[in-house]
Amino acid sequence: MLDSLPPLNALKAFEAAARLGSITAAAQELSVTHGAVSRQIRALEAHLETALFERAGRGLVLTRHGRQLHAGVSEAFATLRSSCRALSREIEGAPFTLACPGSLLARWLIPRLDRLHRELPALRLNVLASDGEPDPRRGDISAALAFIAPPWPSDMQVIEIAAETIGAVAAPNIAARLSGRPFEALFEETILETTSRLQAWPQWAQACGLDEAALAGARQTGQRFEHLYYLLEAALAGLGVAIAPRLVIEGDLQSGRLVAPWGFVDTDARLCLLLGRGTSLQSGEQLAAWLRHELTAPA
Questions:
Q1: Domain limits for position 28
Q2: Predicted TM-score of the model (pTM)
Q3: Cβ-based neighbours of 135, under 8 Å, separated by 6 or more
Q4: In Å, how far are 101, 103, 136, 291 from 110, measured between CA atoms?
Q5: pLDDT band at 299 (very low <50, low <70, confident <90, very high)
Q6: Are residues 85 and 118 in the same domain?
């Protein structure tokens, strides 16, 4: 076997045939003839001195060596495609599309969007509200802003923005009943939470030294909401005590619409910017730096 790299066209033909399981399909995708793909694969097998495919009925099946090669080749071509896509976006000035949880978008980012557009005009930022966990790997978004806990996903670039802090919050009339009292006073109120962050109350209880078993019992008689937005509206309406990230409710705290009678605690999660492979790291770092500055700037 030679140490030199096989011809790129041979590797490209092999990758397509292995992925599609058919020489005919590979030829159609590559806009070449069936014979051209076959010749490229035979040349690659000769170069590597091993068989890469076996016949299985009318289709193809990778050999053990074929599977080993395909794992590396498919990853390499994915990286090449992503690099070219990132460069094209930079050259063409394609918009930077940011997915963001709806509550964070509405309560924190939107009030700052005008300033963001003025200060980072070259970014050409588009924002959209994400349902569930936004995934920049799906290709139609450049990055996602989200609270996540390590370990970070290995197939995305992750830029940390800030630590997450959470706290028990309530409307002023309920908070007045809790202020100055021990944490156990919480059990006298209705506990509100969102299904998207069921771990939030246990994290808060552990940090505060509150009996988690007692908390679990109180949660069973509480009320759950599908989205953080509805949870916060319920808290503002005085329906009970909610658990929420400080960043999302900072405006409500400053206006006095919500009160955190016991303050806030850190979690192991971080507010992060998640970049897909095809997203410019330079653009992501520019946006991350702006977000950090906004988080530390005076209100």
A1: 8-91
A2: 0.66
A3: 141, 144
A4: 12, 10, 20, 12
A5: low
A6: no
